[in-house]
Amino acid sequence: MKFKINRDHFANGLAQVLNVVGSKATMPILSNVLIQAEKDHVSLTTTNLDLGIRVQIKAEIKEAGAVTLPVKRLATIVRELPNLDVAVDAAANHNVKISSGGSTFRIMGIGKEEFPPLPEFGDEKVFALAQADLITMLQSVSYAQSTDETRYILNGVYFNFKDDKLTLVATDGRRLALVSRELPVPAANAGSIILPAKTVAELLRMLGKGDKLKISFNERRASFQIATDKDTGGLVDSIYLYSKVVEGNYPNYQQVIPKETHQRIKLERELFKQCVHRAALVCSEKANSIKIKLSTNLLEITAQSPDFGEAHESLAVAYSGAEMQVAFNPAFMLDPLDALTKDEIFFEFKDEVSPGVFKTLENFVCVIMPVRLT
């Protein structure tokens, strides 16, 4: 295998696939990147068996071939090379020579036959989406994923393709976020998956490099082909992301969404967010809640803790119902307010022991359990 490549393009490609490799790989080969030279590009692939990524980079191929090299060490070396022109030459014993300007490195690799291949699909359901739509949807719900490993079924985002729409849901048991978007779903293609949190994070990092993406999935795994039609530092065609899915049945999230709320107020998102943020500045670990009090045309936000003192914010709102007060964890309120982009949101509630609900006019719902007032 022999090729010439642009240093910055090579470094960019390695950066794209680096995150998958953990610090404690169970097998030496899982710390390596598979480098395959063919036609006019080089493919870089990494996997941890649960998640795999492949990118292609433009290169001048002199001799096709493949080898695997320690990805973290290689990425560090490539970044530090003195010249833009880099020559890579692999011998039959997997000894790889990398030269650039006056610098030469020799790195021992492992043969490609030991590298676990990314699975091929055959029985999958396939959908095409706009990357911008999926970014917005994932950002709208991903903060609500659970980090409790004992509730592994909640450690991800639920994708449901049904009734001519795609619905994304995430919950940790104390809050639930849901967003849906119209999408043609033929009856034969309907289905759902739970995408692990690590895959969600990688997707968010990689999306936005082009307009389209293709998602394919079956009961055990999913793949994302992310078009890279913008100037992405030498990347060619598309990034391929493969992931195992969380196996099991997602809980019935419809039961969590209140069927009736007695009050609904319209809020200016940024203004409300700033008030909640300021009030939360006096919260502490022991006193981690803010109170929202509603009276005629007035919303008041208060917080207090024995360590720091108290805060009071007030907002004029259109409200004519009974006076009431409810308390929430401020982080649970700020997460959806940060994730949303629309200026106009609605806050619905029933009483001080029922969940609060954020909504927008664009099929977004976030249900937040209250903190009991003592």
Highlighted features:
374 residues; alpha+beta; 8-stranded antiparallel beta sheet; 6 helices; 17% helix; 42% strand; elongated
Q: How would you summarize the topology of this molecule?
A:
Blueprint (H helix, E strand, L loop, with lengths): L1 E5 H12 L13 E7 L2 E7 L3 E8 L1 E4 L1 E6 H10 L4 E6 L4 E6 L2 E6 L16 E6 H11 L14 E7 L2 E7 L3 E8 L8 E6 H10 L5 E6 L3 E7 L10 E7 L18 E6 H12 L9 E6 L2 E8 L3 E8 L7 E5 L1 H10 L4 E6 L6 E4 L4 E5 L6
Antiparallel strand pairs: 1-5, 1-7, 2-3, 2-6, 3-4, 4-17, 7-8, 8-9, 10-15, 11-12, 11-14, 12-13, 13-25, 15-16, 16-17, 18-23, 19-20, 19-22, 20-21, 23-24, 24-25
Mind explaining what this structure looks like?
The chain is built from six helices and 25 strands. Helix 1 (7-18) runs antiparallel to helix 2 (71-80) and helix 5 (269-280) runs antiparallel to helix 6. It is 17% helix and 42% strand. The chain has an eight-stranded antiparallel beta sheet. Strand 2 and strand 3 (41-47) form a beta hairpin. It has helices at 7-18, 71-80, 131-141, 197-206, 269-280, 330-339; strands at 2-6, 32-38, 41-47, 51-58, 60-63, 65-70, 85-90, 95-100, 103-108, 125-130, 156-162, 165-171, 175-182, 191-196, 212-217, 221-227, 238-244, 263-268, 290-295, 298-305, 309-316, 324-328, 344-349, 356-359, 364-368. The protein has 374 residues and is an alpha+beta fold.
